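Hi C.,

You asked whether I'd gotten around to modeling the 267-residue construct. I have! Everything is below, sequence then structure, no commentary in between.
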Amino acid sequence: MPSSDGTPVVTGLALSGGGFRATLFHLGVIEHLRDAGLLNGITEISSVSGGSIVAAHLVLNWQAYTGSQTEFLNARNEVLRFVRRDIRGRIVRRLFFLWWVPRRILVRPFFPGASQALSTWLLNRYYDRWLFHGATLHELPAYPRLNILSTNLTKGCLTSFAQTQIVQFPSEGTGLRRDIDAGLTPIAAAVAASSAYPALFPPLSLSHEDVGAREDEFESNFLQTRASQIISAYKYSTGLSGNRVTRSWLVTPADPLSCRVHRLLEF
């Protein structure tokens, strides 16, 4: 819908972090926006950490979330079932066992991806099994545009997983933005990179083979990522694709007892 001066209106939704508490809070916000007839009008979504779990699921299942009530409830309940599985508890219990067995003998032959960080690898695996079912970035619909945010520890800059590509935003004064064609990146890996936090979940390392990119445009260990500061998500949501954002909802789970949806005008 165009604004009064004829320019397209970009409506952004920024979903912050905060673990599964944030995931559930944002799920409630999405239902509220749907009930208010506003969900269909969202054109841009930026997320980090716990917000990335529901953001990626929302965009991947956009037709269900914006479809009939039955379709919406089926999509919403898939997220609720995932949260009820006690993912962190499952991972901690498995780590207790896997940490003590000879990893080269018993772990690596059966779980080759678990050679670097077992907890983050398991998190990635559970996301894929119960939420994203093998889907990759190129399977996301073109709209709303999604930016799953994380921090590139190798380059020290903000990195976004978007439809068909990975975007690196260099630190101020250090170079130009870099886009990498990486549509074969598993959505689960993008969400794991965004939601991995220190201590329990070490950074996720990805190679060009993991994301389907050419080796010459994807440096070794280009993406060693962990959850970025939430200010990154808010900052990026105000400058989406170079267009002026005239409407945006910034969602924060700071007060779980009230739905704090702030409509900001004229960024």
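If it helps when you're writing up: Residues 208 and 219 are 8 Å apart (CA to CA).

Thanks,
B.
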